[in-house]
C-alpha cells in the first residue's frame, strides 16, 4: 500500500469513529431530554406512578397541591376533598356463552376449562370511586373510609360485605365471578380486557410500585386513567389499578390484577385472587339485574 493510500485509510477510519461518537452523543441527549412516557389519558399529567391534574405535584407517590383545572371529560368535585373524577356510566351486556380454557402456558394449572351461559346484566364502566362512595357515607348507609383518599381514586381497603352494602345502596349488587369474567373477556374469550395481545403501560395501571411501568406507588391511580385499555364494550380498568371483588357462590374472589401486579399472568382476564380480606389493592364495581 502506498503512503497516500495508508493516509486515506486512516482518514476514513477516523471519520467513521467521529461519526459514531456524534451519533452516540445525539442518542444520549435524546434519552436525557425525552418527554416522560404518557401513561395517563384524558390530558392528565404522568408524574411517576400517578396521574395528576394541572397544578399538582407528586409527593410521596401521590398527587398533591391545588388543582388548577380538570381536563376535559373529568369533573372537579370538592368532597370529600378537591379532586378530578371521571363520571361513571352503566354498560348493558346482552349475555352469551362464556368459554374459558387454558389457552397458553401461564393458564396451565390455573384455569379450568368450562362453558357458562351468561344471562343479560349491566355493570359499571368504572371501579367505584371515593367520590361516589361518599354519597353512601353521607346517607349514613356506609361507614367513612379510612385515611383521606382522593375523590377520583378507587375505593380500597373494604371487605366484600361493605362492597355489597354500597352496591345495594345504589340498587345493584356485586357481579358474580363468571359475570365479571364475561365482561372482561367477552364471548371471544379475550386474554386481556382489550384483546389477546398488547399489555403495555398506557393500557393498564400495573407495575407502579417497583416497575416495570413506574416506581414509588403507594396506592392506585385515578379511576379510568387508562382509556387505551378499555374493553370493546366500554369498561375501564378491567386489568390493573385495583383488583375487584366478585361473588363466587357463598364466597368471594378478587379479579383483574392491580397497581402492584408485575407479570402478564396477573392481568389476564382469567386471573384471580382467592381471599376474603380487605386489602389496599382491592376495590370493586357494581352489577345490575335487568329491569323486571
Could you write a compact summary of the structure shown?
With 292 residues, the protein is α+β, with helices and mostly antiparallel strands. Helix content is 20%, strand content 19%.
Write the layout of secondary structure elements.
Blueprint: H1 3-33, E1 45-47, E2 50-52, E3 57-59, E4 62-64, E5 74-77, E6 83-86, E7 90-93, E8 96-100, E9 114-118, E10 121-124, H2 130-138, H3 160-169, H4 177-185, E11 243-248, E12 251-255, E13 272-273, E14 282-283, E15 287-288
Parallel strand pairs: 11-14
Antiparallel strand pairs: 1-2, 3-4, 5-6, 7-10, 8-9, 10-15, 11-12, 12-13
Helical content band: 10-25%
Largest sheet: 4 strands, mixed
CATH topology of the largest domain: paralog of FGE (formylglycine-generating enzyme)
Strand segment count: 15
Poorly predicted regions are 26-36
SS field, number of helical segments: 4
- Spell the H/E element sequence: HEEEEEEEEEEHHHEEEEE
Any idea what the radius of gyration is?
24 Å
**What is the name of the CATH architecture of the largest domain?**
Alpha-Beta Complex
Main sheet: strand order: 13-12-11-14
End-to-end CA span? 95 Å
Secondary-structure-derived class: alpha+beta
CATH superfamily of the largest domain: paralog of FGE (formylglycine-generating enzyme)
Question: What spatial form do the alpha-carbon principal axes imply?
Answer: globular
Using the coordinates above, name the CATH class of the largest domain. Alpha Beta
Number of spatially distinct domains = 2
Jot down its keywords:
three-stranded antiparallel β-sheet, single chain, four-stranded mixed β-sheet, 292 residues, alpha+beta, 15 strands, paralog of FGE (formylglycine-generating enzyme), globular
Amino acid at each position: 500500500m502506498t503512503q497516500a493510500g495508508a493516509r486515506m485509510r486512516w482518514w476514513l477510519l477516523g471519520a467513521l469513529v467521529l461519526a459514531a461518537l456524534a451519533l452516540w452523543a445525539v442518542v444520549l441527549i435524546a434519552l436525557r431530554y425525552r418527554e416522560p412516557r404518557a401513561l395517563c389519558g384524558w390530558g392528565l399529567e404522568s408524574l411517576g406512578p400517578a396521574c395528576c391534574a394541572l397544578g399538582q405535584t407528586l409527593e410521596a407517590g401521590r398527587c398533591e397541591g391545588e388543582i388548577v383545572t380538570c381536563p376535559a371529560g373529568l369533573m372537579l368535585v370538592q368532597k370529600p376533598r378537591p379532586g378530578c373524577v371521571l363520571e361513571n356510566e352503566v354498560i348493558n351486556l346482552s349475555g352469551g356463552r362464556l368459554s374459558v380454557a387454558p389457552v397458553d402456558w401461564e393458564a396451565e394449572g390455573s384455569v379450568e376449562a368450562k362453558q357458562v351461559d351468561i344471562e343479560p346484566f349491566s355493570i359499571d364502566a368504572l371501579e367505584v370511586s371515593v367520590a361516589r362512595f361518599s354519597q353512601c357515607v353521607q346517607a349514613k348507609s356506609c361507614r367513612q373510609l379510612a385515611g383521606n383518599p382522593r375523590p377520583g381514586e378507587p375505593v380500597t381497603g373494604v371487605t366484600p360485605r361493605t362492597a355489597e352494602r354500597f352496591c345495594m345502596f345504589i340498587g345493584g349488587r356485586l357481579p358474580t365471578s363468571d359475570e365479571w369474567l364475561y365482561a372482561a373477556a367477552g364471548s371471544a374469550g379475550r386474554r386481556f380486557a382489550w384483546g389477546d395481545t398488547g399489555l403495555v403501560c398506557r393500557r393498564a395501571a400495573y407495575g407502579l410500585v417497583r416497575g416495570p411501568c413506574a416506581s414509588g406507588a403507594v396506592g392506585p391511580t385515578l379511576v379510568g386513567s387508562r382509556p387505551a385499555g378499555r374493553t370493546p364494550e366500554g369498561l375501564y380498568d378491567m386489568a390493573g389499578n385495583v383488583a375487584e371483588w366478585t361473588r363466587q357462590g357463598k364466597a368471594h374472589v378478587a379479579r383483574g390484577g392491580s397497581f402492584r401486579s408485575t407479570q402478564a399472568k396477573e392481568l389476564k382476564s382469567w386471573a384471580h385472587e382467592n381471599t376474603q380480606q380487605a386489602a389496599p389493592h382491592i376495590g370493586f364495581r357494581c352489577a345490575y339485574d335487568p329491569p323486571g
